[in-house]
Batch of 3 targets.
Target 1
Amino acid sequence: MLRERPFSFPTDKSIRVIIDTDCYNECDDQFCVTHALMTPKFDIKGIIAAQFGTVHPRSGTEQESYDEIVNLVHLMGLDGTVDILHGIDRALSGRDDPAFSEGSQRIIDEAMSDDPRPLFVATLGAVTNVAAALLKAPVIKDRMTVISILGAPYPAGGFEFNLMNDPVAADILMTSGAKLWQVPSSVYTTMKVSYYEMLNKVYPCGEIGKYLVTHALEFAAKIQGMIAQMKDLLPPSDDMPEITIGGELWSLGDSPTVGIMMNPTVGRFHDEKAPSRVLPNGKYEFDGSDHGTIRVYDDIDSRFIVTDMFEKLKYNFGN
């Protein structure tokens, strides 16, 4: 269980948070979810399992995400304290796709509630569940802020893992006029942490700390083979980035969402005209139509975010 704090945060300063995560895709989601669950400012209204079966072309990825969320909550001693919700188990086929999930319904319910506190929906993977919620209840676009680890840099866009797991959903979200704060790949890949930092500052922090580090090292050991497989299975792309593993570090690419929800000024940002369309290859198309603007982060204070995670792990689970 989380350690009792000698202080509390004023309730009018807390925010409602829904996390939508492809939690077993790799190993950064686990750090982000754990960090969020330790953050007192967040009133977690649900954690939704996201699919990641397009770039990893197999079935059952949503269930893998769900099971991993359950695992993390258990390792933190928080069983029964947070709602874990199933998401849609595949990418959307088009704007008329009727796919829906209990996670999508939770987004709608929270957006439409009379709770005056801000609602943030943090997406760490494909935005399938958020897009389905927007299709069913377009009015929610004005009643929440979506923070997405999503997309390649502007103006061109291009291949990016989360977007490519559901390009239709990305198109729906980014052209919806919703309040969207986007962290593109050029920014989230700067969230570097060394394995020695993990070993010194995370591994000693209870069962959750041991698991986070062990899983990260095990995943890193097999990632090169997975990358080769993905390249063989995906259609040829002239802008697919070269993905290599340095051997002594990892990028906690989902964790900017936690820092941004703690305080939006942990990174610099600008407003970008929303694309007219997001193409199946991840490119952004602009034809002069007006879909509002998107807040796009240009950089992130990775050291603040990572250090805050370390200190919360130590406070709650350290010796």
Target 2
Amino acid sequence: MESKVNFTVVGLFTLLLSAALVAILLWLGSSGKYYKTYDTYYVYTSESVSGLNLNAPVKLRGVEVGLVHEIALDPTDSERVLLLLKIERGTPVKADSVAVLRTQGLTGIAYVELTGGSRQSPLLTPAPGEKYPVIRSGPSLMTRLDAALTGLLASINRISDSVNAVLDEDNRRAFKRSLAQIDQVTHALAVHSPAIEAGMDNAAKTLEHSARASADLERLIERAGRSADAIERAANEAAHTASEASRATTAVPDTLRDIHLLVEDLRELSASMRRTSEQIENNPNALLFGKPRPKPGPGE
């Protein structure tokens, strides 16, 4: 016995299901949570996009704002890769924004990060002849690390070549001889260290005696100066006495002549002592080493 199908019930169920699906789609579209409008942007890069897949996220300051819609070689330049990005409408993509390829953690999943975009910069618009706006690309972290390591290795190679050029066979032998001579000098110093210490002690004692002699010399110069002053005063007094005596009497010419001679001798003695005091003050070593020899004249 065949079962009977109620086509009216089936048709009604189909209509209700279709209406429910249409209502759900309309609700999702009106809410905007699951149905979004995207703007298209180009990105040209000369780097390898290994690890970047279709539908990879596009982020702005860590917030996902779009996806990678297409990855292809640039038809006008085979050394560049063309990325077609779909970014949510209303995202502030500025004229100074830069697209950088990054990897997420240790998983190695690549995505596109938008950096830059200052507040004063205008929104990015298509350039003349371009269908979509073009976002500038920046070097990724791996590219920067690769460039830095390449430069570091090149510097190390240059330093190694310079060291090898300096430390050639001749320079190594000379350096070896220098080390041997330094070892001999240090050994000689160690052997003669008692004599060196004794010499240093003698030098210290000589300096001490010189300091004492310098102090005594200062006192001697001071005394000589006072003696010269006293002799000069005595000479002046004698001259004054002789003058008074010559005015008092003229009967003793011989005595006056003797007195005048005595006064002249006293003056010469005073001048000689003053010169000696000045010489000692200017050259204290004269007391120890005598008067220095005069410099030879022309032709001597």
Target 3
Amino acid sequence: MSVILDLSKLLIDRYINKDSFVIDATCGNGYDTNYLASKIKKVYTFDIQKKAIENAKILNKNFNNILYFYDGHEHIDKYIKTHLDLVVFNLGYLPNSDKSITTNFNTTKQAIEQSFGLLNRKKAIIIIVYHGHEAGELEAKQLSEYLSSIDKNEADIFEHKLINKPNTPPFIYEIIKR
């Protein structure tokens, strides 16, 4: 799995600079937020679990360029009006927490559509898909079908995955706005 996380950081670094505005659409325990906050101007981070926001605030207590939203990422348009260089999603569930609380395709699709509208040209949405559980398997299938249907004149979409590893390793979608 660390290979996928390393790859996600390489992809992230392609799209950001010190003046970037970025959304971490799934705050989780705050590790992506931490990585982003150390490199850019402003991170907007969302999560529906209070525990996730609390954990992220503890981890990122030394940063003052993070805005936390205790809300679902499908409500991005209620809070964010600025243009973005990057949006990052980690789909699945909060590690070391209630595994019945997961991301789901319908809210993820809404968040992708809203954030894509705010995305600068030639910038990206990075989606790390953890699909090794029942809800994740369904979400991955639906997401693949949805992303495959996006107009090629709107975005270039890549799928980065390990093909020689057992046990459903996570994979990454990279959506680049044209």
